[in-house]
Each structure stands twice: as structure tokens, then as C-alpha cells.
Model the fold of this input.
Amino acid sequence: MKPIFPLILKSTIGHILIHADSIVRVVAEDKYARLTYTNGRTELLFHSLSDIERRLACGTRVGELLFVRTHRSCIVAMHHATGLEGRERVLLQGQSAPISRENWPMLLRLLGTVRGAKSTVRSA
Done:
């Protein structure tokens, strides 16, 4: 599925317009998803993580944006990544997200595509 930016998603306050570059991570919360913005604010979305994964074209670079499903419960905006804690976690602006063993090889392949001063990834 080709991504459409900005995204129109349904939240607790109705349909909202979300600019993809403001997303840090999306975490599964039961059958819904909790989105975390770059300013630290969070929002509950009435979408499954799989639906959001398709909408963000996870695993595919779109301009400077690169979203990756690092774990069955989490999507990470790698363009906001600041480092890694071993093979277990991605560091993101004062937060972190899990990395599954199954997704580690795919993440290693994609790390070579992360570029720019803000998104330099370093190993802990």
C-alpha cells in the first residue's frame, strides 16, 4: 500500500490529521494503538497496529521518513532514533521501544538507510 501523508486517523476526539514527521512511535494497546508525538503528547487511535503499519509503509523509506515495526507491539519512527540499547531497544527522544529477536536482522539491514544529523543511530 502506498502511504498517504498526512494521515487521517480516528481518535477519541474524532478524525484527526496527523503529519507523519511528528510521530515518534506507535504502540499496541489491546485492539487499538497509542501514538506518541515528538512533543511527548500521546493519543489513542481506533486503528489496529497492522492498519497503521500499512498506512505508514513500514520498512520502506518515504522521503526522509522511515517507519519500522520493531516488535509485534510497536512501530518506531527510525528518523527520530537516537541510539540502540544492545539488541533489545531503540532509543527515541527520551523514550525507548522494544526490538524483537525476529526483527533484529531486518532492522540491521534498514539501519544503513538512516541518514541525517538528527537520525544518526549509534550502538550503546
Remarks:
- The chain has a mean pLDDT of 86.
- The chain is about 10% helix and 40% strand.
